[in-house]
Amino acid sequence: MTTTSDTTATVLLEASHISVRFGGVTAADDINLTVRQGEVLGVIGSNGSGKSTFLNLCTGYIRPAAGAIRFRGQPITHLSPRAITRLGIARAFQHPQLFLDKTVLESIVLGVACRNRFWSLRTVFQPDYRRKADTIVDTFGLGDYANIVNSELPEGVKKLSDIALAMALEPSLLLLDEPTSSVSSANKFVIMDTLMPILRDSGVTAIIVEHDMEIVERYMDRVVAWDSGQIIAEGAFADIMHNEDVRQRVTG
Ligand code: ADP
Ligand code: MG
For the chain, N or C: smaller number of CB within 10 Å? Predict the structure, then answer.
């Protein structure tokens, strides 16, 4: 049974009246958005509509000209990216930002160490971290690539490795910016079919910017559509796409 207080308790992230301008471009124009605990929220919209800007705001890379973002009720808009990561928000990028000269396993060990605020290279490979990293590598099906240097991975595996690295930080909110871009159409489903059970099992909430409508339709619990820095529609994929104007603006 859901009561009013239960509903309040399930809000994980709340953006209120967020505005961002870059010169003459309005990248966020009075954005209001609530993200609930445990949901996988898809963010769609044409190029330049402000999707990545929103993720940059949530991770402290950009400060808004107006408005606030709260995470578990705590304002985070003034915090550094590192402080925000510590609170439990982790991110993977459209172009993976891996430790390119490290192997998959090494970089995930570093992620685990980072989560534990332990960066001494002498002790980073302690058995505890190694065990945790092995588990993450297995969960993401990366066993065959564990000893391969990130820069040499096929594109789809690189994306998964980057997401695994973000998950090594044990976030409660995972932000992904186009996790299936530049990946073959067969492999994009592999990425999502690997990721979704991990999110569901761990209860991690996700905001996923995605261009591919097949992926959005198949995997997202709820969708928000962006255009010119504004949210123009919010709801189930089928309901949003039912509206011809929205369909044109997000896919145009
Ligand atoms: P999307 O991810 O939806 O493609 P972005 O959020 O990257 O869009 O960009 C929204 C708008 O803001 C675009 O017009 C883009 O050129 C501009 N923009 C984004 N980041 C910056 C920045 N750091 N400096 C200047 N303009 C930016
Ligand atoms: Mg973008």
Answer: N
